[in-house]
Amino acid sequence: MRAALLVVLLVLAAPWVVEGALNLGRDAYVFRALAGSQDAALSSEFVNFDSYDAVRVQEELGVCSFESGLSASETMTRICADLEEKGWTRVSSDQAGNACLAKDEGVYGWAYVSCGSIDGTTVAVCNIAKRN
Fold this sequence. Notes:
single chain; alpha+beta
């Protein structure tokens, strides 16, 4: 069972790994489904990725993650403040360490952010949805 799951994960991940991880410096990488297709709207409407380490983005799936040296709650506060400056509104989330945000204008309209810390490193995982 584990071998079959590993094979499925490798098959799904292979196109993004093979077609290019563009080194942006400072341990940041953008994983793309199609080489040369970075979404400018993601950079302008969402988090400033230059502020974080080990950035990973998969635009086709609307998923990104990054690391912070701050605590999980400090990282969440910083992310939400940055997003609110860009027009996002935080809507209720009943889960600690998670935030749901929405935006009325732009390419993206919904985001879910989750932060967790282990051994002094906080990882934020975000799901971002484009408008239909």
